[in-house]
Amino acid sequence: MTLIVQSAPLAEFCARLKGVDYITVDTEFMREKTFWPQLCVLQVAGPEEAIAIDALAPGMDLAPLFDIFVDPSVLKVFHAARQDLEIFYHLMGRLPVPVFDTQVAAMVCGFGEQVGYDTLVAKLAKAHIDKSSRFTDWAIRPLSAKQIGYALADVTHLRTVYDKLKRRLDRNGRAGWLDEEMATLTAPETYAVDPQESFRRLKSRSASPRMLAVLREVAAWREREAQRRDLPRNRVLRDEALLEIAHHTPSTVSDLARTRGLGARLAEGSQGAAILEAVRRGREVPEEECPRPEDKPFLPRGIGPLSDLLKVLLKMKCEEFDVAQKLVASASDVDMIAAFGPEAQVPTLHGWRLDVFGRDALRLRAGEVALAGSLDGIHTVDIPSQEAVAEPAP
What is the pTM of this model? Predict the structure, then answer.
């Protein structure tokens, strides 16, 4: 078990990776008390060697590794990569490329919805992952041998998992399916959150444009403050308090102090002044520039049975193609197809999803095919056109 605590051995390890086709990567981090994930341990494996890096070691320079992360000739293999990529986007200002996510690849290859790493290791690497260190505090030093062993297992077995999934993708011709998913996963906009858009994560029962304008300004202040102080959002100001402030639009310290859970001390201090200033900005936004509630598409009455029928087709097609349903279409996607047919703005009607489900979904909606049951399961049956039915037999 190799734990690197100095920059020089890390640079030497990175030099030994020169020319490799891929590396496997995982992280251990803490986030309970910070806004940004605190990277504690970083695990990397090449085809022949694996190391754990103490990211909290004094003076640790990760630059040689980051150089590999942005090298387009080296594939970076993760499992459930999104949180790891968020960490690197914050530390590097850019994302590792190219990336292979074994969780998504497993969904493409029929292993079910969001399959866990330990499940894939058991099925593909025929190994067992000791879960006892899963909820350990990775910021405490020194790290134990058990912790290091657990961390390294996340990248050593990942080599076998990647190799076997890649072979399956090559055999079934679905590498292009995965490429589409990786394009979204590695898009910078997936991780770059505009503070002015942070209000959209908050749900309110009633939301007038003016209320949303105030909420946008106060939520943006909280987002910037949480980032500046590196604190969780709710440690700066709770969601409930944000919504109450946006509804009541306090204009004085005494008004603000009445906000439930806020308190006079905060209201009378510099943060209270900043909140009141954000409220003022929201009040002064021109009416035509106030954000509007997101319009949910109007779904006609009576589409429920059709949606249910399409969901049966979805399950059937996903079993036929051995691919996870969640990857092909969501319940809302199916409802949109039921309501709007080919005009529905959903990913299901594009790319490989169209071939797997979308095209037959449109045909079922149009009455061109029907679903029939037999001892062998559910299957589609072509329905003759009315013209064909009307033609007399020769």
Answer: 0.90
